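Changelog-linked ticket: iron/sulfur cluster example.
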Amino acid sequence: MIPLTEEAVAAITKSCIDRLIEKGGDRHVRCRSREELILMAAGRRGAPGEMKTRIYYFSGTGNSLHIARELRKRLKGAVLAPMVNAEKNGNMAPEADALGFIFPIHCLGLPIVVGEFLKKISVRPASYLFAVASRECSSRVRDDMDRILSRQGKKIDSFFSVNMPETYLPMFEVDSADEAARKEAAVPAALDSIAAAVNAGETRREADPRELAMYLYYALRPAIMFICNKTRYFNLENKFFADDTCNGCGLCEKICLAGKIEINADRPAWNRRTKCLFCFACIHFCPARAIQIRHSKTTVRGRYHHPLVSAAEIAAQKRTGVSLEPDA
Ligand SMILES: Cc1cc2nc3c(=O)[nH]c(=O)nc-3n(C[C@H](O)[C@H](O)[C@H](O)COP(=O)(O)O)c2cc1C
Ligand code: SF4
Ligand code: SF4
């Protein structure tokens, strides 16, 4: 690999860049910036299809983890890394050509933990950035990410969303089995399309086609998000409790991504001093369906987690670093 000194850059002549463009000769090379082509020529970045990709994910009920895992299988040289504890695990300055961010939508936008993660991650100037929300959402979420990344002179190159099952129990019932299966059936094709775009280094930054139809939603979104974030979702983190059906199994303590739950005398207690990540892993994975949220209808609502994701795999986000095994 040639070190990217000024001399090295100077040595990369126009004809070298032209040859790269000629060699690629297709849209994925055309959409790369001149700076990226220089870096590719200097050996800092693999040619399309040969990139080292790191996929950061955050997932409470497994939808985003499922997408991340399935996408990794479709992307050459991709590894997974959880956003939770990434700083503690020393994963904040990735040596990757492409970075992916996969996450749920919380309160119409980025989960708080994802916003905090993006503020701290160090992104290489030439890296290709893509994001996948595990829920249909507006391109304004991408704009929110751009605002954070602009501090490093970067923006999301391609933004996608995949409509996965509902998990926000305080307001909504979970999807019926049929509805969840319908969404799941559409996932492989959606991931094939996302992987093709990412492998080609394409830029996909379309505006949300529903902007006009959902005028009111977009007009109110900033205010709703401001209130939700300011009040930490209306003090939601202090409204969890376990009812009498709790059997003291301790799973909620093990799975809690924030380390907020402690089992005392066979019953969980939510530590008020620890900030919740609002992942909802505790409430959806509790085998007794014993966890409820005060002043909401959680006692009569169902529970959901992705059928191919286990509680142990969700909990593993807390301690794993980067997963290098291609098929792990
Ligand atoms: C706290 C919270 C807030 C949510 N807010 C929204 C929302 O505003 N819009 C939406 O479409 N889905 C919302 N959802 C649903 C999730 O985005 C969706 O089910 C996602 O696929 C869950 O991903 P995960 O299993 O990886 O956590 C919310 C879920 C939670 C837990
Ligand atoms: S997971 Fe459910 S049943 Fe198990 S200790 Fe927690 S609340 Fe009780
Ligand atoms: S308390 Fe529940 S929702 Fe909050 S971080 Fe822990 S597992 Fe997630």
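Closing comment: Example verified and attached. The mean pLDDT is 85. The chain is about 35% helix and 10% strand.
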